[in-house]
């Protein structure tokens, strides 16, 4: 086993392909359904929203999908990202566990999101698209897409959930610095937005509403496509570059993870780090335990229902089978904005259903405590979303201390927290709290599930 | 010449020594003087403020000073930092110049400052010091020292200029996240602070005042030492790891810089990237043009006087020969807070005097325009300080377009701008302005120079 603390790869070892887990599933994930007919949709149904290359990736069952040269050229700026051995944290925890983390915070946008935004901008540009519309909550995704659009000369319109638009002016400024147009959602630019505002003039918005607005804009304008930062198969696919690199880096380290831990909101950073390893497990090559950690306040995998549901509030999207809390559920205002989504990536949900992964939830205060312990030991202050993974890792490492087992634990440190210091400030001032399981709200939202599938 | 865009080094190629430019100077820099006697000071005079190992580095003339193993272990987390070829920016500028940048924003604190904070914390810990006191303006330095103190189990007290303390709660939160105590300066904790408050109860503070407070705390408490983030020889020394790596990376790139450009406030990031190259020039090995870029609103090198001056407002520091605007000068509120200092590192000033480097100034609006052009092309949004270097680089690259010369230009991208989005937001909203040369204020401050040296 190597005694290094950092495992880097030369840029010529940057993976040449993304890994498509659909190729290795023992049974296929349930199909996406048309909300009108209840029948499986075909590529043409998605053509108004996405370029054909991305639609083909969405339905592909090829194991390896080549990363285009132009995308790899941009990846090279921050990829391969480093894999670290957290030796100082291990020492603080006094654990025999070997803790590794893959660090995506070195990307220009500070998170893993550019792995897919660059790819999506590339394929749209290839097809002659002029403009992308998207939504963002905390702004991680919006700023990553804005950056990619700047690089490819595409216009970018971001519907930003109104409460974040007001509370997170710095994320907005970052998107605007890259040249994007940022609109507070709900807005008067769309029918979906107008309908919400007519009923709730003071609506502070939600991710579901913002998705509706962005989808509507794309559906109505031939020059505009829609871009999503998580959930969909092709988005998860692009993130697998993280895990593909990690496989090579574990060879360097002469080690292999016993446990992989990722935080889950829509599922993309979790999929990115874990899918290549789960693929090896499903192919019978090497076993690994994989754990998704979600907020107790938005527990789609641990408390949601596995059912067909919409991805948005206005019900403009197709129906996907997912662990859902109901598309009208508005999660409590935990600071991990990127994890506040009612559903889960269909592929991640499917893996949970077929027993390939496990899920657990953690409360907000534990995540910040874990994040600060990590920061003081390792220097890097994680994004609040990533703190969920850190909390799961610390739990596992402390179990190793109890049992004396020296497990290798890998997690994805999906982004730095430099844009999230208000959350840390609130935590340090004792202003944060844990939220009760929102039982009534979730029951109400689940009662509204569509009756298909 | 390599066609790669990123030059990384394996962690086993992390330099084993810092480079001490004092060894190669054709004539030594003027000595540091005791303010009372006007005589050169000795190591013992500095002992109340610094551990002896750092004092010996301050006066050393050895060319190579070994980086302790424990410091290298921590460096490994973000070092060697990447050297990038800015091919997309070159294309946008339509220049035959080859633009390279060393990127220090991947450190946990987001800037080059941890290169010295980690070393300083280490040597203090070695000597049994319990606590470090320092000052910070924008918070880059304070957060870097707070991080290093957390790693070595030292207490950390940061005097933060009051106007920043109020305007930059996120930097404060970062320091507190690492466990530091942050105090608004001027404070009632020191005589220096009390004296200012007695005269100006509403004082919003300045770097000079904050230095006085931190120095006073260290001088009065045997368990506490003082730590400075720039200006001093040993601080510049620690930053040379940047340039030492760049030398190796240029070998990889099969290229060599014709021009090196850095922004200057106190001089440490500039020294870090340039000193190893200037050393080669002074030893007659390879020529290079080196340019320091400073704010037109705080033009110590281009408009200041080369004279002995204090480093602080309360005149508690020794006297150093420096390009100064006068220690009582309070620079206009440009957003590049890290460059708002009345003086310059004595070693950098000396190099300017003996003709080894050049200096130029740029106005604020040009720096933000340059920073945004860089961000849209390269993805990374630079800190406002680093935008000064970017502006100088773009000027040089456009001169190359005029002349048709294909020069290799290297600059230090000393930090990312993720903590500085208010500045970008203000720029995009048209709220920023350029400042006239503060002629009267500087003349007044210079009239108060001490009459020694």
| CATH architecture descriptor of the domain at 5-13 and 68-110 and 234-446 in chain A | 3-Layer(aba) Sandwich
Main sheet strand line-up of chain A: 1-4-5-15-10-11-14
Cα gyration radius of chain A (Å): 20 Å
**Helical/strand content category of chain A:** alpha/beta
The poorly predicted ranges of chain A are: none
Relative helix content of chain A: 40-55%
> Hey, roughly how much beta strand do the residues of chain A contain?
15-25%
* Chain pair with largest interface: A-B, 47 and 47 residues
**How many β-strand runs of chain A?**
15
Question: Alpha-carbon distance between the termini of chain A?
Answer: 49 Å
CATH class of the domain at 5-13 and 68-110 and 234-446 in chain A: Alpha Beta
Calculate the mean pLDDT score of chain A and round it: 95
**CATH fold-level topology of the domain at 5-13 and 68-110 and 234-446 in chain A:** Rossmann fold
Gross morphology of chain A is: globular
Supply the number of helical segments of chain A.
18
Largest sheet of chain A: 7 strands, mixed
Tell me the quaternary state. homodimer
Question: Can you describe what's shown?
Answer:
The structure is a homodimer. The first copy, chain A, has about 450 residues and is an alpha/beta fold. Chain A has a domain at about 5-15 and about 70-110 and about 235-445: Rossmann fold. Helix content of chain A is about 40%, strand content about 15%. Chain A is built from 18 helices and 15 strands. Chain A has helices spanning about 45, 50-60, 70-75, 85-95, 115-125, 140-150, 160-165, 170-175, 190-200, 205-220, 235-255, 270-280, 300-305, 345-355, 365-380, 385-405, 420-430, 440-445, and strands spanning about 5, 15-20, 65, 85, 100-105, 130-135, 155-160, 180-185, 225, 260-265, 290-295, 305-310, 320-325, 360, 410-415. The termini of chain A are far apart.
């Amino acid at each position: 086993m190597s005694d290094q603390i950092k495992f880097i790869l030369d840029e010529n070892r940057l993976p040449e392909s993304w890994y498509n887990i659909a190729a290795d599933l023992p049974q296929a994930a349930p199909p996406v359904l048309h909300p009108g007919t209840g029948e499986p949709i075909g590529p043409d149904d998605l053509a108004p929203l996405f370029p054909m290359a991305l639609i083909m990736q969405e339905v592909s069952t090829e194991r390896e999908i080549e990363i285009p040269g132009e995308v790899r050229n941009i990846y090279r700026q921050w990829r391969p990202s480093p894999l670290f051995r957290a030796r100082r944290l291990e020492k603080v925890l006094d654990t025999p566990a070997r803790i590794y983390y893959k660090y995506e915070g070195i990307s220009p946008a500070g998170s893993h999101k550019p792995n897919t935004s660059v790819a999506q901008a590339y394929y749209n540009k290839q097809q002659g698209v002029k403009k992308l519309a998207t939504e963002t909550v905390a702004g991680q995704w919006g700023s990553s897409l804005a950056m990619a659009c700047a690089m490819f000369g595409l216009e970018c319109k971001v519907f930003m959930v109104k409460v974040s638009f007001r509370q997170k002016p710095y994320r907005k400024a970052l998107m605007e610095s890259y040249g994007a147009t940022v609109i507070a959602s709900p807005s008067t630019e769309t029918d979906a937005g107008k309908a919400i505002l007519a009923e709730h003039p003071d609506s502070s918005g939600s991710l579901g509403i913002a998705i509706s607005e962005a989808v509507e804009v794309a559906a109505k304008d031939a020059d505009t496509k829609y871009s999503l930062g998580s959930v969909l198969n092709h988005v998860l696919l692009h993130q697998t570059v993280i895990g593909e690199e990690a496989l090579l880096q574990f060879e360097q380290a002469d080690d292999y993870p016993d446990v992989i831990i990722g935080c889950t909101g829509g599922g993309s950073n979790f999929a990115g780090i874990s899918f290549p390893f789960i693929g090896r497990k499903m192919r019978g090559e090497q076993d690994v335990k994989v754990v998704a950690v979600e907020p107790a306040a938005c527990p789609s995998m641990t408390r949601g229902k596995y059912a067909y549901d919409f991805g948005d509030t206005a019900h403009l999207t197709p129906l996907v089978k997912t662990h859902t809390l109901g598309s009208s559920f508005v999660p409590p205002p935990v600071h991990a904005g990127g994890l506040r989504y009612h559903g889960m990536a269909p592929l991640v949900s499917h893996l949970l259903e077929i027993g390939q992964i496990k899920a657990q939830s953690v409360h907000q205060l534990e995540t910040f405590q874990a994040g600060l312990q990590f920061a003081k030991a390792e220097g890097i202050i994680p994004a609040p979303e990533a703190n969920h993974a850190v909390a799961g890792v610390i739990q596992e490492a402390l179990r190793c201390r109890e049992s004396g087992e020296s497990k290798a634990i890998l997690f994805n440190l999906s982004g730095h927290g430099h844009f999230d210091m208000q959350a840390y400030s609130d935590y340090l001032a004792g202003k944060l709290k844990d939220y009760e399981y929102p039982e009534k709200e979730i029951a109400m939202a689940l009662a509204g599930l569509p009756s298909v599938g």
